[in-house]
């Protein structure tokens, strides 16, 4: 099981349905692999249900139920669960390693997929750090949420493996290194650009894991 | 209008009872009455049970829609939620989620879906709403946690009334008005840190959440 989880506040925003689509995707991908967080979200969903129950009730217009019944005749109940969703495949369509990666510098490749999430302000980037590769030291100007999709990386804060959930803000400075024999691929959602602290300061959009 | 003869044949019901009696968790966690109705809808297309659910949850969902800025689409949202409940009811398993929890997540997803459709621009969505927001218990079989889940709803219900008003206000805004923590802070004119600490206090008091690892 994953070692790094979203915090309660993030899960609450997820349960309430308030997260942006890319952040919801990060949480959902983590949940699919993490029974611990699934049970936390279940409890938060219960909180939502109980809060809804405590609100005032608003009566429905005459004939509402009949209108629904009329629609049911065209809506047979599902007889089996729909196939298990594979949101990542739906989004990327193929093997992670076969994507049209753009080499940035050194060991880092990136693929900006912000355009898959229209009508929202976050930047969404896939990043690949080659096995054994190292990214330059940097800090973060805004909030950044990262989910490890493949491989693992290590930095001053620990080791982050597949499906680990990492939230960073401007107080974190780090120098990620890909560990293990696989390339490390991450999905990052950025609310503001990264600020470099080392000699790469002039470069835009570096490995912002 | 609602005709009892439309509900499922008696022999199917008998078989259902036998099955559940054999379930060891049944005595530990009596199913809630809404869960029973929901299962009747799922297994027998029981329209009387469906109507009872509609009368109980419909007005709640309408308020939820109105609080979320969907006032002019509130009746439409209620309709979408109930069609979705009908369609998914056979996937509902009372051991995996309390009925009201399950219905809340369907209402949430339909609200998100409606807003996504209203905002839709040139680009096709690549990920479906239900693939982003999970409906509890649909793709898993975890008997160990299921009991825990049913208990959690009971516990939340019992302890919610003991929360201080200021904490309740904050979490109700997050859930019912779908305001982010930042938006709640702006509206109440209090720092974001205060909002977050009220939420954490509330969650701790509700024992909804185990201690965060990273905070
Ligand atoms: Zn987790």
UniProtKB/TrEMBL annotation, chain A:
Domain ChrR-like cupin positions: 97-187
UniProt cross-references to Pfam families, sorted A to Z: Cupin_7
InterPro entries: Anti-sigma_ChrR, Anti_sigma_zinc_sf, ChrR-like_cupin_dom, RmlC-like_jellyroll, RmlC_Cupin_sf
Classification via Gene3D superfamilies: Anti-sigma factor, zinc-finger domain, Jelly Rolls
Domain of life: Bacteria
Protein name according to UniProt: Anti-sigma factor
Species whose genome carries this gene: Marinobacter lutaoensis
């Amino acid at each position: 099981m994953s070692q790094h989880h979203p915090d309660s506040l993030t899960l609450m925003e997820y349960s309430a349905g308030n997260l942006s689509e890319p952040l919801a995707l990060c949480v959902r991908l983590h949940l699919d692999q993490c029974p611990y967080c699934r049970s936390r979200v279940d409890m938060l969903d219960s909180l939502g249900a109980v809060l809804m129950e405590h609100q005032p009730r608003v009566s429905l217009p005459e004939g509402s139920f009949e209108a629904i019944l009329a629609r049911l005749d065209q809506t047979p109940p599902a007889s089996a669960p729909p196939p298990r969703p594979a949101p990542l495949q739906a989004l990327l369509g193929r093997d992670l390693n076969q994507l049209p990666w753009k080499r940035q510098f050194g060991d880092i490749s990136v693929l900006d997929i912000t355009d898959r999430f229209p009508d929202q302000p976050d930047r969404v980037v896939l990043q690949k750090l080659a096995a054994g590769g190292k990214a330059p030291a940097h800090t973060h100007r805004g909030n950044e949420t990262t989910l490890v999709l493949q491989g693992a990386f290590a930095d001053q804060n620990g080791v982050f493996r597949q499906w680990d959930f990492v939230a960073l803000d401007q107080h974190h400075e780090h120098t990620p290194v890909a560990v293990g024999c696989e390339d490390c691929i991450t999905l990052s959602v950025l609310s503001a650009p990264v600020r470099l602290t080392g000699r790469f300061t002039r470069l835009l959009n570096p490995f912002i894991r | 209008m609602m005709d009892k003869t439309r509900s499922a044949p008696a022999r199917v019901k008998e078989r259902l009872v036998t099955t559940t009696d054999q379930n060891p968790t049944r005595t530990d966690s009596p199913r809630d009455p809404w869960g029973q109705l929901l299962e009747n809808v799922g297994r027998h297309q029981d329209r009387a049970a469906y109507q009872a659910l509609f009368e109980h949850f419909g007005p709640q969902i309408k308020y939820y829609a109105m609080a979320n800025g969907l006032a002019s689409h509130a009746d439409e949202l209620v309709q979408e939620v109930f069609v979705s409940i009908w369609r998914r009811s056979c996937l509902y398993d009372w051991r995996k989620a309390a009925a009201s929890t399950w219905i809340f997540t369907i209402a949430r997803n339909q609200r998100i879906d409606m807003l996504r459709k209203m905002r839709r621009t040139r680009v096709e969505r690549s990920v479906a709403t239900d693939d982003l927001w999970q409906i509890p218990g649909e793709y898993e079989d975890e008997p160990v946690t299921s009991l825990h889940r049913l208990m959690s709803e009971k516990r939340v219900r019992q302890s919610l009334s003991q929360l201080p008003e200021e904490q309740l206000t904050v979490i109700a805004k997050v859930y019912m008005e779908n305001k982010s923590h930042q938006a709640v802070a702006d509206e109440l004119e209090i720092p974001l840190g205060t909002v977050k600490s009220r939420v954490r206090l509330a969650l701790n008091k509700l024992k909804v959440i185990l201690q965060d690892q990273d905070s």
